[in-house]
UniProtKB/TrEMBL annotation:
GO terms for molecular function: hydrolase activity. It comes from Longimicrobium terrae. Residues 305-334 are annotated as: Disordered. This is CubicO group peptidase (Beta-lactamase class C family). It comes from the Bacteria. Signal peptide: none annotated. Residues 56-376 form the Beta-lactamase-related domain. The keyword Nucleotidyltransferase does not apply. The keyword Hydrolase applies. Gene3D superfamilies: DD-peptidase/beta-lactamase superfamily.
């Protein structure tokens, strides 16, 4: 049996230009008509306080720039850029500035692919991972299910040093990573688990996941700047570090980098506008502007907190105790979201229909890491700006 498609593709990355994996970025900003705040049930003056929170944090030196997008159900009411991509670079454009999503890859990429495959009947949540990856056996690994990987209860460690001279060898060694606990016994956030999940999903799909995602999600939603492997020559990518360890258009995460930029834990790049399309699709029950990506039942299944997993849903996270985590204290219990190490986040309140995308490159400098505090403030201010009497989807608006 051939090894996963991922290995063949990762090996080809060194010989093929990155343009084979991503759409061309438009050199000028595309203008999009936004809904008015009032039409989506927001208090505009209150909503402006969310923008002020991002601007204030940028002025404190936490990041050189950021993109913020806010909406309700299928309506986007705000897409704003703040500051610059980096020192001496141009201004942030929410339509064109590309950010390294870091762990948002887990939900926008890997989890989304699994949602499609489960919906299609090509993967089963409680099936052993070894049913898709026979290489993933021994040492109790045959007891790990797809659900365990999605909920970070597989027993795999959080990270691992990827060894081997090629991405193929690196993945083979990751698949042999010993478990630290019996599957299902404890929650440990695991990048390793999502690398394994990506490989299993790719085997189930029978094609590279970037092709599946582009055909079924990114292209239908018009997410034209969302892809893996942008490359060092990306003129509109926000850098995630500079100096001798500069990363701009190349994935910041060391595991994903050793795997050639195609990995389940990190490696995806996108813009504020593209993720606004993605968030509004999920907030609107899996459909946007007549294009259905998921059944509503699929969205509910994957975004609902799972028993015995702390705050974890399937791939997604849910609100933590007030004052902790990213969600804030004013969102509804039916909210879900995720964050990324580089300074990225997406949060969706399924009860109110509101959603927030915040992209920053806080790892660019050695400034203070106040992202969780900022995320909570922005999410709370958006929740406060949403009029509670406004109910129902804005489909067709």
């Amino acid at each position: 049996m051939p090894f996963p498609v991922l290995l063949t593709l990762a090996a080809a990355l060194h010989a093929a230009p990155s343009d084979t994996l991503r759409p061309a970025a438009a050199p000028t900003r595309a203008r999009h008509e936004l809904s008015s705040a009032a039409a989506a049930g927001f208090n505009g003056a209150a909503l402006a306080r969310a923008e002020e929170a991002v601007l204030d944090e940028m002025r404190r030196g936490s990041f050189p720039g950021a993109a913020l997008a806010v909406g309700r159900w299928d309506r986007t009411v705000l897409e704003e850029g703040f500051g610059r991509l980096g020192a001496g670079d141009g201004e942030v454009d929410p339509d064109a500035t590309v950010y390294d999503l870091a762990s948002l890859t887990k939900v926008v990429g890997t989890t989304t692919a699994v949602m499609l495959l489960v919906q299609d009947g090509r993967m089963m949540l409680d099936e052993p991972v070894s049913s898709y990856l026979p290489e993933f056996t021994g040492g109790g690994r045959e007891q790990v299910t797809i659900r365990h990987l999605l909920t970070h209860t597989s027993g795999l460690p959080d990270g691992v040093d990827v060894t081997g001279s090629t991405p193929e060898e690196g993945l083979r060694r990751i698949l042999r990573t010993p478990l630290r606990a019996r599957p299902g016994m404890q929650v440990e956030y695991s990048d390793v688990g999502f690398v394994v999940l990506y490989a299993a999903a790719e085997r189930a799909a029978g094609e590279p996941l970037y092709r599946l995602l582009d055909r079924r999600v990114f292209a239908p939603l018009g997410m034209n700047h969302t892809s893996y492997v942008y490359g060092e020559g990306c003129w509109n990518c926000a850098g995630t570090s500079r100096g001798s360890m500069a990363f701009r258009g190349r994935v910041h995460d060391p595991i994903a980098r050793r795997l050639g930029g195609l990995a389940g834990n990190a490696g995806l790049f996108s813009t504020g506008h593209d993720l606004a399309r993605f968030a509004s699709m999920l907030a609107n029950g899996g459909e946007l502007n007549g294009t259905r990506i998921f059944r509503e039942s699929t969205v509910r299944m994957f975004t609902s907190r799972q028993p015995g997993t702390g705050t974890r849903a399937l791939g997604w996270d849910t609100p933590s105790a007030p004052g902790t985590g990213a969600a804030g204290s004013h969102v509804s219990p039916n909210s879900f979201g995720h964050t990324g190490f580089t300074g990225t986040s997406i949060w969706i309140d399924a009860e109110r229909g509101t959603w927030v995308v915040l992209l920053a490159n806080r790892t660019y400098d050695d400034g203070p890491n106040r992202m969780q505090t900022l995320r909570r403030a922005v999410h709370d201010r958006v929740a406060d700006a949403a009029r509670p009497e406004f109910t129902g989807s804005a489909v067709g608006g």
